[in-house]
Recover the amino acids of this structure.
């Protein structure tokens, strides 16, 4: 009698399949500089939407300000789109034109 009486025993043996799982592609959320969104608001977005520490948020904000764009984070496709949309919705609600784009990580 089997240790697991509810499982039928039909003599078949399960073998390890040759299927290989690929790592899901990752996507960057990029913040773009503009002439209206304040540095303080960009830091706020980085801290509250992208969960960056004070120092990380400040560093990314400076990169956006000085170089025109900066990576806020790298996520799966769905999470990247959700965070970009949330950041832009918060920006619009506060009357800022902050642009966030999503690009595939290379």
């Amino acid at each position: 009698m089997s240790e697991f009486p509810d499982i039928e025993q039909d003599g078949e043996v399960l073998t390890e399949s040759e299927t290989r799982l690929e790592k899901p592609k990752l996507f960057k959320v990029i913040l773009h500089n503009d002439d209206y969104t304040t540095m303080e608001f960009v830091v706020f977005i980085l801290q509250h939407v992208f969960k960056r520490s004070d120092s990380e948020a400040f560093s990314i904000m400076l990169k956006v300000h000085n170089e025109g764009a900066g990576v806020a984070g790298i996520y799966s496709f769905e999470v990247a789109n959700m965070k970009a949309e949330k950041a832009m919705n918060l920006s619009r609600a506060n009357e800022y034109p902050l642009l966030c784009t999503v690009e595939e990580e290379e």
User: Anything to note?
Assistant: The chain is about 40% helix and 20% strand.
